[in-house]
């Protein structure tokens, strides 16, 4: 790295725009789950997009590799630098303006460093709804959401983060700015560049701002917690509710008894919503403009109980009850922690294949190690399961974590055989960058490399993530 | 072209797989509107994807430029070969299998040559709904819809063709096959290749099949025809109906009195739906799973009339009445033909800017030529207007057509000043490939060229369309 680069960057970025103190850098050099730790020469922390562009032009010219980081809540090591100490972190937390809220046009224009919860709140304040919701919404940034195409609990109705985007502003690796911040619902003027940057995990440039869709605020919602005897019954119930409620079906989450048990054991104040335990549960929500959500849900579940598809169901009678039901689902991931080490598999399967996949994956895991506790839950409405494995009771956490690759291959091979994806909503990052080459064919790998090379010929943007050059 | 290439292609494609007779080729060498005419050495017409891949490998190796063509209903010359006679047409009409309909997974997998209407019908037969609907649905192909990211009348609710796509199968320029035919709602495994091919107008490869989303069939619909005094009132009404009906608002179309007059004059059997003429009308539709569409629409329009926002409204009391109201909108384009030459501008504007855009564009056109008859209609709910100009009464059609570029620049400069797009749903094709460089900055042009070169280094795929290399 050129000796004078820090001085030049300081002149561009101002006194708060550089972090060089190792103590200040330290928390940004580890990922959220503590799986990866790296080093960084320093971090740039621009307050304005133009400053970031100037800084990146300088770094690119000097051949310095750059790693963008938002809220550092990612689960695949995508925002953690390598161990070389050569890489420079790019922090977006000062790019935090909500530039415009336009309720008439149903759009909001925000900078990358805005927290997801801040964007949700700004939309609500304008009488609108920003549709992405996920567990880390209080600490993850919109820039990170965009770069990982974040999913969450309402994809069934509103789509992923990708589907919310009308326009982007991006600093390219060489510091040039792409002015793609459009607010148009229809624009067919050549290749859709924004979709390349969404989900690219910062390997093609740094997203600095986005124009996002807003939705009407649902007038009300109905939430139910249902007992079903198996995964096939859950999938059948999904079909029925979609038939009854159409797009108003907003969430459809699968929960296993073991996961509910972990929540009840470890999370204070939670209580069992149904009298009798059941192997599986479904948490579902209908939200719409009309006032009939409760009636639609009651009627559909009444029929499903009469038909034996659902064994029991509790419909929330108040917002507080709805929140209590949702808390059971939201705690599912955290409640695994006190149970020891866990191996997480964020997979998706075409919905009709879900029951077959779960049966096959359970059988394979049990055949490999009957002590492993399978905690399979998630967004069945989108075909997205978190097929998590908690360590055998009493086993060593380190021994179980050492089997990460073994179980990943076992589970992911079954995912692949069911035409699924080994990364539904978390991305590839560093964790799966090699593994994906086992499942994608050579043509796809080649096309992705060509894109990477076309946009980042020097390979300086978040190297070693998503695609190896 | 190598002398023996026809023989090799015949061996691959079989007796019906090549068209060499000039009489058979002729209808495929002109575009739908008769603006472009070209020549082709011959056409390949594969019955199987593997045959197309083998043929393209041969053509690529020989350096032969290729022009894909679906239903030949495009409006920008994107499927018409140039005049050199060197280009070869690739016809998809024999790739016409509906490979799978999966109502449980809400997907349909179809080959590129299927007509849009065939896909709609297959979805209906399975109790589902394919959401794209447009005037040429009886003759346009899904491959063409995908390659132009076709819009239509229900984008407001369901999005463009792009938003319907889960996976694609594509033959690359060099004949390799990309197996991207996934059926997943969530898949974050690197750059999203499908979004590059969608809307690329065949310049990056030939889409051969797609896995598309299906939707629940709406249980019923309510359709109304409303008189409003100006465009601002129409936009205000859009906001109100979206507030009342949420995503159930399925269509919101602006119609001018002059356009309605053309339809009543030229299209047999049409009648005026409201007693008194009005400068502008809105045709709107609400469709949902519930049974309350009619009530929601009546209540919202009742309030709007009481507030003076709407002057009068007719709500269809039967499917036949709804169809009659829709016919007025669907005939709008054809009804311009008997009025002489017309210049069409397919533009989009952020919704809050629509009234300002229409006022500015009308004033500029009138200042340039007061005799020009402005027929501005379209999908206001998506910000998409067809700002069409019919020739002055009694003027020469040829003289008016000679002013195509003059009026395009006049209208498109105003679009650009209103942060709009000069091609909302028709694409760039050959018509706007140069013009777009006036409105896109150098960074965007450069990125698009890099993509083109990365995917098609020899420049053989639909040359001269979308982007100039």
Automatic annotation (TrEMBL), chains A, B:
<dbReference type="InterPro" id="IPR006094">
    <property type="entry name" value="Oxid_FAD_bind_N"/>
</dbReference>
<dbReference type="InterPro" id="IPR016167">
    <property type="entry name" value="FAD-bd_PCMH_sub1"/>
</dbReference>
<dbReference type="InterPro" id="IPR016169">
    <property type="entry name" value="FAD-bd_PCMH_sub2"/>
</dbReference>
<feature type="domain" description="FAD-binding PCMH-type">
    <location>
        <begin position="36"/>
        <end position="217"/>
    </location>
</feature>
<dbReference type="InterPro" id="IPR016164">
    <property type="entry name" value="FAD-linked_Oxase-like_C"/>
</dbReference>
<dbReference type="GO" id="GO:0071949">
    <property type="term" value="F:FAD binding"/>
</dbReference>
<dbReference type="InterPro" id="IPR051264">
    <property type="entry name" value="FAD-oxidored/transferase_4"/>
</dbReference>
<comment type="similarity">
    <text>Belongs to the FAD-binding oxidoreductase/transferase type 4 family.</text>
</comment>
<dbReference type="InterPro" id="IPR016166">
    <property type="entry name" value="FAD-bd_PCMH"/>
</dbReference>
<protein>
    <submittedName>
        <fullName>Hydroxyacid dehydrogenase</fullName>
    </submittedName>
</protein>
<dbReference type="GO" id="GO:0022904">
    <property type="term" value="P:respiratory electron transport chain"/>
</dbReference>
<dbReference type="Pfam" id="PF02913">
    <property type="entry name" value="FAD-oxidase_C"/>
</dbReference>
<dbReference type="InterPro" id="IPR016171">
    <property type="entry name" value="Vanillyl_alc_oxidase_C-sub2"/>
</dbReference>
<keyword id="KW-0285">Flavoprotein</keyword>
<dbReference type="GO" id="GO:0003824">
    <property type="term" value="F:catalytic activity"/>
</dbReference>
<dbReference type="Pfam" id="PF01565">
    <property type="entry name" value="FAD_binding_4"/>
</dbReference>
<dbReference type="InterPro" id="IPR036318">
    <property type="entry name" value="FAD-bd_PCMH-like_sf"/>
</dbReference>
<dbReference type="InterPro" id="IPR004113">
    <property type="entry name" value="FAD-bd_oxidored_4_C"/>
</dbReference>
<keyword id="KW-0274">FAD</keyword>
């Amino acid at each position: 790295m050129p000796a004078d680069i820090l001085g030049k960057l300081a002149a561009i970025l101002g006194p708060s725009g550089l972090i060089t103190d190792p103590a200040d850098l330290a928390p940004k050099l580890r990922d959220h789950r503590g799986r990866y730790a790296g080093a960084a020469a320093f971090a740039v922390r621009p307050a304005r997009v133009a400053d970031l562009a100037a800084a990146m032009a300088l770094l690119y010219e000097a051949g310095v590799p750059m790693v963008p980081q938002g809220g550092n809540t990612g689960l695949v090591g995508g925002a953690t630098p390598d161990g070389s100490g050569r890489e420079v972190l790019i922090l977006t937390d000062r790019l935090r303006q909500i530039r415009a809220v336009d309720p008439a046009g149903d759009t909001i224009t925000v900078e990358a460093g805005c927290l997801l919860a801040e964007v949700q709140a700004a939309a609500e304040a304008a009488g609108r709804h920003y549709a992405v919701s996920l567990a880390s919404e209080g600490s993850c940034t919109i820039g990170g959401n965009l770069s990982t195409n974040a999913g969450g609990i309402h994809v069934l109705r509103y789509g992923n983060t990708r589907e919310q985007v009308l326009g982007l502003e991006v600093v390219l690796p060489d510091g040039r700015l792409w002015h793609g911040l459009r607010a148009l619902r229809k624009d067919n003027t050549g290749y859709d560049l924004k979709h390349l940057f969404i989900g690219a995990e910062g390997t093609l440039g740094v997203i600095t701002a986005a124009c996002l869709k807003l939705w009407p605020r649902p007038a009300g919602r109905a939430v139910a917690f249902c007992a079903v005897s198996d995964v096939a019954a859950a999938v059948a119930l999904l079909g029925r509710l979609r038939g009854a409620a159409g797009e108003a079906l907003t969430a459809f989450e699968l929960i296993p008894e073991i996961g509910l048990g972990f929540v009840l054991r470890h999370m204070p104040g939670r209580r069992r919503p149904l009298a009798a335990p059941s192997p599986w549960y479904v948490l579902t929500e209908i939200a719409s403009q009309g006032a009939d959500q409760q009636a639609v849900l009651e009627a559909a579940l009444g029929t499903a109980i009469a038909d034996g598809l659902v064994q029991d169901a509790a419909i929330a009678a108040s917002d507080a009850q709805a929140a209590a039901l949702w808390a059971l689902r939201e705690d599912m991931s955290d409640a695994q922690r006190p149970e020891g080490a866990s191996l997480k598999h964020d997979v998706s399967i075409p919905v009709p294949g879900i029951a077959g996949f779960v049966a096959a994956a359970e059988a394979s895991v049990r055949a490999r190690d009957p002590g492993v506790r399978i905690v399979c839950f998630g967004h069945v409405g989108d075909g997205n399961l978190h097929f998590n494995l908690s360590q055998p009771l009493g086993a060593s956490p380190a021994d179980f974590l050492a089997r990460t690759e073994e179980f990943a291959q076992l589970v992911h091979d079954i995912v692949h055989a069911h035409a699924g994806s080994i990364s539904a909503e978390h991305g590839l990052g560093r964790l799966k960058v090699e593994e994906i080459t086992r499942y994608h064919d050579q043509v796809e790998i080649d096309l992705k490399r060509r894109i990477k090379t076309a946009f980042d010929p020097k390979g300086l943007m978040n190297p070693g993530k998503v695609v190896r050059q």
